[in-house]
Amino acid sequence: MRRLSRRRAGDRTATTDTELEVNGTRHLLRHAPGAVLLELLRDRLGLTGTKLACGNGECGACTVLVDGTPVLACITLAARVRGPVETIEGLAGETARLREAFADAGAFQCGFCTSGQLVHAAALLRAGEVPADDHGLRHQLAGNICRCTGYSAIVQGIRMAGPGEECG
Ligand code: FES
Ligand code: FES
Predict the structure, then answer these.
(1) CA-based nearest residue to 57, from 76, 70, 42
(2) Residue 52's CB: how many other CB atoms inside 10 A?
């Protein structure tokens, strides 16, 4: 990860160059020092599967993985990202079973929260860290807010995609 900061006090034209690995591809992006990861993903790389909802780190719609860990891209400074970034587009294969389970469980309606839910769930499944009890799983997903579906269906979808379960 290489960064070349040319920011000076009072210099409104200051930019920062950040090298990011996103979904396995490296990009060198010049941006304002205060740019957040979500801006670069959506506006510069066209990865619009990661959603902007609250923009304040409160809803989880913008969840992506950085070095395998779920982070909120709307409040993560791009220049401070360390490690490979994975978005819902890059996780398309890994989440195929999970997406099918979400559809079968009715775990989305408008779908605006869904990519964040899927990315977070994929991280739990990958790490083998899906809590055995539903209360624990809901607690894990507490940062991913859904305004329309209800969490029972989301929990059910994740269970259906877990090891040893069959979808469809
Ligand atoms: S859009 Fe990032 S947490 Fe809501
Ligand atoms: S499906 Fe609409 S916000 Fe979750």
Answers:
(1) 76
(2) 18
- Encode pLDDT of 61-101 as tens digits: 999 999 999 999 999 999 999 999 999 999 999 999 999 99
Instruction: Output the CA 36–ligand 1 centroid distance in Å.
Output: 11
Cα–Cα–Cα angle for 25, 26, 32, nearest 5°?
130
- Nearest atom in ligand 1 to 145's CA: 4
- What distance in Å separates the CA atoms of residue 123 and residue 86, rounded to the nearest whole number? 10
The enclosing H or E element of 29 equals: strand 25-31
pTM, rounded to two decimals: 0.90
Ligand 2 mean position, distance from CA 16 (Å): 35
Asked if pLDDT for residue 2 goes beyond 50, the answer is no
Residue 51 CA: nearest ligand 1 atom is 1
What are the structural domains, with CATH classification, of the chain?
A: 3-86 (3.10.20.30), 96-161 (1.10.150.120)
Q: How many helices (DSSP H) and strands (DSSP E) are in the chain?
A: 5, 6
